[in-house]
């Protein structure tokens, strides 16, 4: 059963956790999203957060229907959920945040390839675990305007093994469209942890070497397609 409440308390369920469940088991360092200059705050913060909150809720509703469709094979289910998730994640902004100053060291083609390889890397490492979390209930509890007029949508797992774990989505608006730029689990930023994971190869060999390493990782066949294990990118 999915809980509801007033205004910003939207419907959600297992799907919200499936998007980031594997990250929970892997990431522990607590670092925030890179700071940005504060834009002029919205005149009506309460109204401002409605659209991003709605986007998260509606996406979750679509993902739930896919998760609970008994006619779909695991591979088809994963493909459909990935398509829904990819439509609301801003991988270019996430890539900029992950690479930080290294982003400027890449030309336009290299930036495009990093974004593409990073997207595949996320999918290969975490997408195969979706079926484990169909019955988990997650409740969206509100939203807050952040610096640069980003919006964080707050939620928590309501039942199961991870009951009480906080899952928050940070969204940014570009050209009138809201997109997810980070997921924060119990105060731990997905973007910051990827930055930490890639730090060694970036400092020793640079961003071009990281692209090459991601490409190699993404081309490797999975030993078990039904239960891929996340692997760190190394030298």
**Structural class, judged by helices and strands?**
alpha+beta
* Rg, Cα atoms, Å: 18 Å
Output the CATH topology. Nuclear Transport Factor 2, Chain: A
The topology string of helices and strands comes to HHHHHHHEEEEEHH
Rounded mean pLDDT is 78
Helix content: 40-55%
How are the strands of the largest sheet arranged? 1-2-3-4-5
Count of discrete domains: 1
* Proportion in β-strands: 5-15%
Characterise this structure.
The chain is α+β, with helices and mostly antiparallel strands and 235 residues long. The chain has 9 helices and 5 strands; from the N terminus they run αααααααβββββαα. The protein has helices at residues 14-18, 21-26, 45-48, 50-67, 74-88, 91-99, 108-126, 190-205, 207-219; strands spanning 138-145, 151-157, 166-174, 177-185, 188-189. The protein has a 5-stranded antiparallel beta sheet. A hairpin with an 8-residue loop joins strand 2 (151-157) and strand 3 (166-174). It is globular, with a radius of gyration of 18 Å.
């Amino acid at each position: 059963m999915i809980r509801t409440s007033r205004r910003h308390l939207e419907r959600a369920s297992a799907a919200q956790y499936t998007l980031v469940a594997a990250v929970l088991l892997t990431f522990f360092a607590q670092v925030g999203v890179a700071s940005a200059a504060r834009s002029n705050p919205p005149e009506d913060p309460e109204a401002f957060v409605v659209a991003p909150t709605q986007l998260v809720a509606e996406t979750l509703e679509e993902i739930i229907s896919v998760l609970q469709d008994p006619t779909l094979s695991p591979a088809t289910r994963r493909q459909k959920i990935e398509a829904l998730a990819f439509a609301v994640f801003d991988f270019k902004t996430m890539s900029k945040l992950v690479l930080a100053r290294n982003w400027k060291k890449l030309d336009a083609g290299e930036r495009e390839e990093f974004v593409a390889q990073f997207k595949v890397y996320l999918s290969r490492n975490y997408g195969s675990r979706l079926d484990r979390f169909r019955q988990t209930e997650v409740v969206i509890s509100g939203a807050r305007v952040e610096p640069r007029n980003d919006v964080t949508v707050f939620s928590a797992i309501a039942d199961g093994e991870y009951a009480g774990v906080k899952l928050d989505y940070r969204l940014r608006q570009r050209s009138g469209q809201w997109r997810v730029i980070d997921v924060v689990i119990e105060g731990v930023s997905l973007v910051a942890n990827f930055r930490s994971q890639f730090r060694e190869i970036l400092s020793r060999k640079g961003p071009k070497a990281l692209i090459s390493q991601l490409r190699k990782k993404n081309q490797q066949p999975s030993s078990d397609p039904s239960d891929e294990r996340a692997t760190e990118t190394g030298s």
